[in-house]
Amino acid sequence: MGTNFSCCNSQQLDSKFQVDEITKSGSTTKPTLAAKPFRTRKKKKKKLNLLELPIELLIPSLSRAYLIKRHFEAAWILKSFRLSHRLIFTPLPTKPEIEKIESTLAPYSVKSITSKNLRFIPSTELAEGGFYEGQWDIILQSQEGSGVMLYPDDSKFIGYFHDGKRNHQGRHIKMDGDIYEGEFNDNYMQGKGILYRNNGIVYTGDFEKNLESGYGTIEQFGKVIYVGSFLNGMKHGKGKLTLADGNVYEGEFKSNTMDGYGKYVWTDGKEYSGQWKINKPHGEGTYTWPDGRKYYGYYSDGLRHGYGEFTWPDGREYKGSWVKGKMHGEGFYAFDDETGTRQSLKSSWINGRREKWL
Questions:
Q1: Residue 238 counted as domain residue
Q2: What is the pLDDT of residue 24?
Q3: Within a domain: residue 10?
Q4: What is the mean pLDDT of the chain?
Q5: CB neighbours of 228 closer than 8 A, spacing ≥ 6?
Q6: Which of 166, 191, 224 is the last residue of a domain?
Q7: CB-based contacts of 207, cutoff 8 Å, min separation 6
Q8: Of 114, 139, 166, which residue sits at a domain end?
Q9: 109: domain range?
Q10: Is 36 or 132 the better-scoring residue by pLDDT?
Q11: Does any domain span residue 3?
């Protein structure tokens, strides 16, 4: 039984050996596999190295990359605000009329304020109207620092902001052509500044709540026409006014009128010194003419009225009553007679004519 077992094993081994030999000799064909298609390796894209770009392409590429990053950061910040402001991804829509005015002015620049709460946000359409580009306080969610504002009335402000209002320094250009450069406080022109009016008048001086108040000067077409005090946008207090015809008034003003004590000098040599009321002599004063005539006395509404003394160049004098600019009533008329003797006679006058001697 042991011999049979070994024979079987021997046959199996021989049979296996023969198969192996046939296979090796190639007399029996092995089934062929289908050919696999040729695969090419995908080349990895080379990362753009900006430093390898020529200089004429480097700067625009860097600028574009910076702007894209800045706009994404700004959009993320605005998304967290209470009000729905919107980035416009274009320059501020300044009106052509404003641009035309700006082209005639010297450039006006502002500096960024450094603070951990401040961020620059590009051109933004504001929920409350208007457009703004500049610094924001991301905690208070309001304009803070330097920036440019276009208001709903299309006026333009370049300067500094605090708590969303114009503050410190800036330039404000209005559609009607008025321009202000100077100090601001809580949106008001406040402090020192220059106001260019569209009619050619330039005011330089103090402001309070958008009005000329304090000390200042007014120029028109390059000539100084007023220097003095102002209150609530009007000449008020002491000042010197040069009129278009060359006449000069120096004295007190009230609500834009000559009012109080002052001296008025005409270009032809006449002078009046005394009391004024609403641009007219009123009260006590002295009027002189270049030919030697002189009046001292009282005025009412610009006319000699009440007691007055008038002197002529030849020595004649009248001292007495005046009504509406004329000798009227009783008075003393003095003159030198033919012998050179001084005469002073009491007389009665009506509307500037002597009625009789008294």
A1: no
A2: 42
A3: no
A4: 85
A5: 215, 216, 235, 237, 238, 239, 240, 241, 253
A6: 166
A7: 182, 183, 188, 189, 190, 191, 192, 193, 195, 213, 214
A8: 166
A9: 61-166
A10: 132
A11: no
Q: How many domains does the chain have?
A: 2
Render pLDDT for 269-321 as a digit per residue (tens, 0 to 9): 999 999 999 999 999 999 999 999 999 999 999 999 999 999 999 999 999 99
Helices (H) and strands (E) in the chain, counts: 3, 22
3-state secondary structure the chain: CHHHHHHHHHHHHHHHHHHHHHHHHCCCCCCCCCCCCCCCCCCCCCCCCHHHCCHHHHHHHHHHHHHHHHHHHHHHHHHCCCCCCEECCCCCCCCHHHHHHHCCCCCCCCCCCCCCCEEEEEEEECCCCCEEEEEEECCCCEEEEEEEEECCCCCEEEEEEECCEEEEEEEEECCCCCEEEEEEECCEEEEEEEEECCCCEEEEEEEECCEEEEEEEEEECCEEEEEEEEECCEEEEEEEEECCCCCEEEEEEECCEEEEEEEEECCCCCEEEEEEECCEEEEEEEEECCCCCEEEEEEECCEEEEEEEEECCCCCEEEEEEECCEEEEEEEEEEECCCCCEEEEEEEEECCEEEEEC
Write down the pTM of the prediction: 0.76
Question: Which secondary structure element, helix H or strand E, spans residue 102, and what is its range?
Answer: helix 96-102
DSSP β-ladder status, 142-150 and 326-336: unpaired
Query: What are the pLDDT digits (tens) for 26-39?
Result: 444 445 445 555 55
Query: Does residue 348 lie in a domain region?
Result: yes
Q: Model confidence at 81, in pLDDT bands (50, 70, 90)?
A: confident
Residue 227 has pLDDT above 70, yes or no: yes
